[in-house]
Structures are given as C-alpha cells and as structure tokens.
What we know:
binds guanosine-5'-triphosphate, ribosome binding, six-stranded mixed sheet, single chain, nucleotide-binding, eight-stranded antiparallel sheet
Amino acid sequence: xxxxxxxxxxxxxxxxxxxxxxxxxxxxxxxxxxxxxxxxxxxxxxxxxxxxxxxxxxxxxxxxxxxxxxxxxxxxxxxxxxxxxxxxxxxxxxxxxxxxxxxxxxxxxxxxxxxxxxxxxxxxxxxxxxxxxxxxxxxxxxxxxxxxxxxxxxxxxxxxxxxxxxxxxxxxxxxxxxxxxxxxxxxxxxxxxxxxxxxxxxxxxxxxxxxxxxxxxxxxxxxxxxxxxxxxxxxxxxxxxxxxxxxxxxxxxxxxxxxxxxxxxxxxxxxxxxxxxxxxxxxxxxxxxxxxxxxxxxxxxxxxxxxxxxxxxxxxxxxxxxxxxxxxxxxxxxxxxxxxxxxxxxxxxxxxxxxxxxxxxxxxxxxxxxxxxxxxxxxxxxxxxxxxxxxxxxxxxxxxxxxxxxxxxxxxxxxxxxxxxxxxxxxxxxxxxxxxxxxxxxxxxxxxxxxxxxxxxxxxxxxxxxxxxxxxxxxxxxxxxxxxxxxxxxxxxxxxxxxxxxxxxxxxxxxxxxxxxxxxxxxxxxxxxxxxxxxxxxxxxxxxxxxxxxxxxxxxxxxxxxxxxxxxxxxxxxxxxxxxxxxxxxxxxxxxxxxx
Length: 596
Ligand code: GTP
C-alpha cells in the first residue's frame, strides 16, 4: 500500500468515555464488520474485558474509507484506558500519526484525558478533539467544547461532536481523520524497521505480534531479528487484521499489521522492541524500550494446599500473555506455599486474581498489597523488600519508599475534602489550576503505599464520585517506616506483618488485634493477640479460654451420635491452621486479610 493513502490513529480517552463503543461504530460504518456480526466491544476479545467493560490489551484493525473518490486504509489502534496500563498506551501512541482525543459530553475533561493527551503530545501526534455521547440528555456540548478547545488551543467550532451509540457524526469523523492526519513518513529502500506495540499469546497460533512498519518492508518466510536481544525467527505469516487476520505478501512503510513466528512466550516478542530483517539489519532501533515495572506486590496462596502446582501452571500461562506479570515462589508459616506476585497496580492485581479463580478454578487467599521498599542497613547494603516479613529486624539506617505524582480533577467545591484526604495520606501539594470556573486540577506527590489500598474509593466517596485520578511513578523518598508484627500467644503470624509509617503503626496494630479477637474462636486456654514493633508491644487483645467439650452435649446417650460428633470435629480441624498451640480457622485468615 502506498503510504500516501494510509492513516494510523488511535483513540485516547478517560475510562468510560466511550472509546470502545466508538471503535465498534467505526468498524460498522466502514463496513468491515456487518451489523449482524456486531457484538458489543468487538475489539475486546477477552471475556473478562467484555464483562468489566474495559480494554486491557490494545488491538489494531484496518478499515477502508473513501474520500473524494480515493480509497484510504485507516489503521485504528485501540488503547487501554486505565492508569495501570499507561505503558501499553504509550507504545500504541508511538505507532500512530494522530490521536482522537475523546471526551464524554456529559462529563468533560478527566484526569486520564489529560494524562493521555500529554502522552500524545510527547509523541508529536496530531490531535483531533471530539466530544462523544452527544445523544445524552445530560450532554453539555457547548460548555465542554469550550473546555476542550481551551485545553489544546483550537477554536470551539473545531471540536467534532459524535455519538458512538447512535452513529451521529461518525462518518464526518472518518473524513476528518483522512483530511487532518498526516500520511506516514518512512524510507522504502532502507533496512526494515518495525515497532512492536503489542504481542498476544494465542493457543493456536502462538504469539501474535502487532507491529508498525517504519522503514523498509517485511516479507513472509524471511528471517527477522529482535533488535534488543538479537534473537532470530522465521516469519511464518504476516498480515493485517481486518479485523479477522488476513495474510498479506508483506508489510511496508507506514503499514500496521501482525507477525507470527511460532514463538510461545510474549517475552520473546516484547512491546517496544524493534523488528528488523536478518539479511540487511538496521543499525539503530526505533528508540526507547523499557520493561514495565511491577509497583504493587501481594502473596497469593491456594486455600487448598494441594492446588499449589495448579497455581504455578496458571501463573505460567497468564505470563504468556502478560509481560508485566512477575512472580516468585514464597512460603508462609501461616499460609503454606504460594507466590509473591508483582503487579502494575491494584486493577491489574484484581484482574489477575479473578482470572486465576475463574479460568483455573482456584480458591485463593491474597495478602494485603504492599509496595517495594529499599532498606539501607547499618553496613550500607541495600535490601529490596517486597514482602513485609522480610523487613530486617536489625539496625536500619534508612528506608526508601516509592513515590507517585498524582493528578486529581474534580469540581471546585471538593477542594477542601481532597486536601484533607491527601494530608492524611502524607501527600504534598504541587499545584492547582482551574480548568474552568467550577473545575480544578490538583497535583500531589504521595507515597505509593498510601494510594494502593483504598485511596481511590475514599477520593470517590469524598467527592460524590466526581473526582478522577491519574498517577505515575515519581522516584522515592526516605520515610519513618516500621514493621508491625502480629503475635498469637507470642508466635508471630507472618502473613499479617505490615510495613507502615510510624504514626500509623498503632492504628494498624489495634485494627488487626480487634479483628482477630472476633475471628478466632475461643480455645481451651487464654490467647493473647499482640501487635509489636520489634520487641515493643503496641496493642493487645485477649481471647478468653473456654472448656469446649463437645461430648458433654450428648448426656451420655447414643454412642453412634458421639462418634459422629467426633468425626465432625476432626473434619473441622483439617481446615484449621496451627499457629503455635493456637488453632486458627482458614476463614479467619481470609477475613482478616480481606480489605474493609
Ligand atoms: P474502556 O475501554 O474501559 O476505556 O471504556 P470505554 O472508554 O471504551 O467506554 P465504553 O465504550 O465501554 O463506554 C462506556 C459506557 O458509555 C458504556 O455503557 C456505553 O454504552 C456508553 N456509551 C458509549 N458511547 C456512548 C454514546 O455515544 N452515547 C451514550 N448514550 N452512551 C454511550
């Protein structure tokens, strides 16, 4: 295809502003998907994506569109909208010349609208501002067109107005994509260079790698090279998604499509890497490539210990499709054998956990999520602590915690409530701007540990659901952090240890001790529950003793009934974990570790 008739674009939007719905409508308007084959969110292939209505993995699709008698090929690259997947967004943007900046006409600009816009501007993309959902009775297109125009420096009339739901304005938008976006530039005779912006594991085809060709041409059957690792593969198939895979005789300058090489692991075909030909390899790769870094860690343990091998295989399988997932085996005295798993954020954690439970039929306990600390010990060595129970007990020089730069957008009436919340979370305000008379953008620097748990829920409830949040990693800081241990009858329960700020240690200790007093049944002896920092006890509760004699209830009667009761008690014991001499029911661990 001649690059002059190619347009590569993506749609960027805040979550729920209607990106997938608009993408579906474009597939329909361009005729690549017939109305009768249309199912909601065609591009979101995973069931879990469709159910949750969110896009996790980006996908690309080629659509024909005619303007003034000329046939164009529009390549639409769908991008994930959630903050946990920003890394994938930025790779997708790098494969495009332009971006549709989509804003809900009833909501206006939100935090991820800005974050995505900034990413698009960094990639020097041409931006087409579009208001969506103009069919909604609550839509305020004039007001938000002004807001959007003001943000990117155009006239309010230049903001297109569409409805992905009814299809209004979508054909005009397709025309504007052709007219406003530049055609891809590249050197046809140069050695081939293609950027990987996605790779997906498929049970039948192995890894399917999505690429954007920048220079030269890639052809089927030729040998290719991954520039970061120099690994070589044969190109078994090359083609475009339209949206079903359609093999072609090659991909050249400006084209977007897929490659299949028969590799089985997405790590061999990494997002951000450059593909080149083996015979005439390019000298320079297409710029930065960084592994996505896990930010949040949690222990995952099978409730039934014999499921451990199933969990291991399940994680191996998920990893095939999720280069950002990392895990290593760990053991816990309280929970048995499991894994410490690293995630990009809490949503990522939830999704992985849900997939493990649903697709692999696993029942899991997860420990409270935590961040990674850099602990400097007295001999100046650095210890990277991903599991609170590994926090050293000896002398510590300092502890570094990861920080984030957060942007919050909300109606101005909530400024006070937002400032209060951020103060409680050890946040420092960096600045504040009014987007319009009634809406503000507030910028904070916060410890990541303070936002991984319930921060977003709190922010939503304090702003009646109106605030939106975006954050990104922003270095680290030295903080006064301690490890709080929980002891049952003097025995430490590793799964309950937490690293907290010194000022919050007491609150954590009391909360856990009270919770456990209610969850652990009485034993034949008194059980003290203590929270401790090192050897210093900071909170204490007692479970009083009982004499539990199940046979006493039988009044010496029927012997078979007695036997049944004894059997029952034995069964119950199987689901008990022993902590020292204390029997703790499995449910107590689950309940104590669940967030509320
Ligand atoms: P992510 O893929 O998770 O980023 O979400 P999204 O931006 O793709 O949003 P999605 O397309 O899933 O739409 C979110 C909600 O808005 C859904 O309930 C849609 O039915 C609704 N919606 C999308 N477009 C329109 C529209 O033009 N009009 C109306 N009334 N509703 C819309």
